[in-house]
UniProtKB/TrEMBL annotation:
Signal peptide positions on this chain: 1-20
This protein's UniProt keywords: Carbohydrate metabolism, Glycosidase, Hydrolase, Polysaccharide degradation, Secreted, Signal
Reactions this protein catalyses: Endohydrolysis of beta-(1->4)-linkages between D-glucosamine residues in a partly acetylated chitosan
Cellular compartment(s): Secreted
Highest taxon, organism lineage: Eukaryota
Keyword flag Signal: yes
EC class (word): hydrolase
Family: Belongs to the glycosyl hydrolase 75 family.
Organism: Aspergillus niger
Enzyme Commission number(s) of this protein: 3.2.1.132
Coiled coil: none
Function noted in UniProt: Chitosanase catalyzing the endo-type cleavage of chitosan, the deacylated form of chitin. Chitosanase may be crucial in the degradation of the deacetylated portion of chitin in the fungal cell wall. Chitoolisaccharides produced by the hydrolysis of partially N-acetylated chitosan are known to have many biological activities, including antibacterial activity, immune-enhancing effects, and elicitor activity.
Protein name: Endo-chitosanase
Length: 351
């Protein structure tokens, strides 16, 4: 109850700042002079650490939900989870990945962006002014009812949470996940000089995108190129995250930037060299190269399991486990036959 009351006070405080954060987006269309982080930062009363942990433990896998995080042949994979899509309020999809920089839209010639496009999915957004995230095109096409476009999103990175919108999709071959606009990426990791050719390689970023028409940032706060009212974005974000946290029974506050984060994997190395990682997202203590998808993790297909693991009866398991089970069954049958023979001999002795 205290959490809801505190969050409610935060919403009221934000409502009073609407005028101050109505902006002329073109004045912020600059690689080094975008909107300040405070314009789209989440309320500090929200349970960021608990939400991050909950997302790392998500296990429901919809169709077309697993993608590599880069175009390397041995790229680790990230899975979009749908555990939270049935909530009446705060319904959302979530995933954990790295963060590359997307500069499509009017800033497609940003530093390091050799293959940018002049448009984004629902306009031609400014990567310098709009905090947005990207989702694979195949997943978007398969879930247009959940994601009509410009849906409010929350990103947990570097111990903080920021709001943005679902502004673009990835249509590369192969399609990848773990992307955000110039503004979002450089706000998350301000000391790393991220750009179109240099992303954040650790899989320690949590992406949450809220589903349905009610979660779409309205045209009164967004035009074809810019967000025009950041207070609307913040108030919607805080309301949606508050509802999600309430549905999950969470409470708490933001973690410090040095706090440990779940499901962290260094993606700059190959899957083989990171095989010593320990899975915490699934609750399994097994080691594998794709955290959260080690032996014992919940799965729907073999694409949801790391390395050589297979999806057996809804769980990732070693491919030789079935053989072991068969051998155990054979041993049990032999033991049963031996017991029967012993019983027969005992009966003969009694006679």
């Amino acid at each position: 109850m205290a959490f809801k009351t505190t969050a409610g006070l935060a919403f009221l405080a934000l409502a009073g700042s609407v005028k101050a954060q109505s902006v002329d987006g073109s004045k912020y269309n600059s690689p080094s002079n975008g909107p300040p982080a405070s314009y789209f930062a989440a309320a500090t009363t929200l349970p960021v650490a608990a939400l991050q942990s909950a997302a790392a433990k998500a296990s429901s896998v919809p169709s077309k939900a697993t993608y590599p995080v880069n175009t390397d042949d041995d790229s680790p994979k990230s899975t979009i989870h749908s555990d939270w899509v049935k909530f009446n309020q705060g319904a959302a999809l979530s995933w954990v990945a790295d963060m590359d920089v997307d500069c499509d839209g009017i800033d497609y010639k940003c530093k390091g962006n050799g293959d940018g496009l002049p448009e984004t999915n629902w306009g031609a957004l400014s990567a310098y002014e709009v905090p947005w995230i990207v989702i694979p095109d195949q997943f978007l096409t398969a879930n247009e009812d959940l994601l009509p476009g410009n849906n409010v999103a929350a990103v947990i990175c570097n111990g903080k949470m920021y709001y943005g919108i679902l502004g673009d999709s990835n249509g590369d071959d192969p399609e990848v996940t773990g992307e955000a606009s110039w503004l979002m990426a450089r706000t998350c990791f301000p000391d790393d000089d991220l750009n179109g050719a240099e992303g954040h390689a650790e899989a320690d970023v949590t992406y949450i995108v809220f589903t349905g028409d009610d979660a779409v940032l309205p045209s009164s706060a967004l035009n074809k190129n810019y967000i025009t009212n950041f207070s609307t974005l913040r108030s919607m974000g805080d309301k949606l995250v508050g509802a999600l946290a309430s549905n999950l029974g969470l409470s708490g506050s933001s973690p410090s930037p040095s706090a440990s984060v779940p499901s962290q994997t260094t993606l700059a190395t190959s899957a083989a060299t990171s095989a010593a990682s320990t899975s915490s997202a699934s609750g399994s203590t097994a080691t594998c190269s794709w955290q959260g998808h080690c032996e014992g993790a919940i799965c729907s297909t073999e694409d949801d399991c790391s390395d050589d693991l297979v999806c057996d009866s809804g769980k990732c398991s070693s491919p030789d486990e079935d053989d072991g089970d068969d051998e155990d069954d054979e041993d049990e049958e032999e033991n049963d036959e031996d017991d029967e023979d012993d019983d027969d001999e005992d009966d003969e002795d009694d006679e």
